[in-house]
Amino acid sequence: MRPSDFGQDLLPNILKVLNAQAARVARARQLVEADRQLIRIGVSSLIGLATLDLLTEPFLRDNPKTEIVVRAMNLAEMTQMLQSGQLVFVFGRVAQDLAPSPEWQMVRLHHEPLVHVGKGQTAVPLAEVVLADLVAETFVLVPDACGLTRTTCALLQASGPALREYPGQAMIYRVLQDWARIGVGSAILPASRVEPATRAPIVLFCGQSGGVAITCHALWRSGAERPPEADRFAWFLSEVAPAILAGLVWPGGSVRPRFTPATASLCWRGEPAPPARVVKW
């Protein structure tokens, strides 16, 4: 199904009108909130709240008058809102076609191991598993809103025959684990999104010494007119944040981040992450 010639002619102008309207709304919000130092960020579900706390707390501590407003959303929505000026930054597995343009600046934030939760897994699993050995399994996936499904499909298809996909879909990561546990199918997840009680093996490429990982980036418009607090945050993301996230503890060869029993917060260099002043939008 495709638009008619009339529709194809009108569509670019419709998009321009919608983007212009969104830009006016964003500008109106800036004027109304001129006395507040707000930074609006779109965040993919691939980035957990604990990781977001680690990422933002040092900046907020040094900029006590600044408030970060977070909107959890899918990649397509947050990229569109970034382009229209309704968001200043987005975090996630962002569109790679935007980054090479001089108009956009991108920095790698997070490089996280992917782990395998086997179908009906009851015994203590192996410490690692070769990716090529998984191609015969049936996998439960989530809707391709965060980039995990796209990554899972690409990895498995590169290792063997066509992906065997369960016809239904889980809506959240925890359901993936629950369905794998009861035998619906296997799942591949970022290590930090696996429940602490679940012991899952690292997924490896055949013959590769390191684990398969998924990478998240921060993306923002370069050279755009931004308030000073947004410029400071852009510098922080480029110069400080990658070093903070590189300090995540993966203890004892485990592929999971360390969690404290009391707060279930991700740890950095063995210490619980203090709560950040992040407002969910």
Q: Could you characterize what this model shows?
A:
Mean pLDDT is 74; it is low at 249-281. With 281 residues, this protein is of the alpha/beta class. The strands form four sheets. A seven-stranded mixed beta sheet has the order 8-4-10-3-1-2-13, sandwiched between helices. Strands 5-9 form a two-stranded parallel ribbon. A two-stranded parallel sheet has the order 6-7. The chain has helices at 5-32, 49-62, 75-83, 148-159, 173-181, 228-239, 241-246, and strands at 37-43, 66-72, 89-92, 104-117, 128-130, 138-141, 164-169, 187-190, 202-204, 213-221, 267-268, 271-272, 278-280. 32% of the residues lie in helices and 24% in strands. The chain is globular, with a radius of gyration of 21 Å. The chain has seven helices and 13 strands.
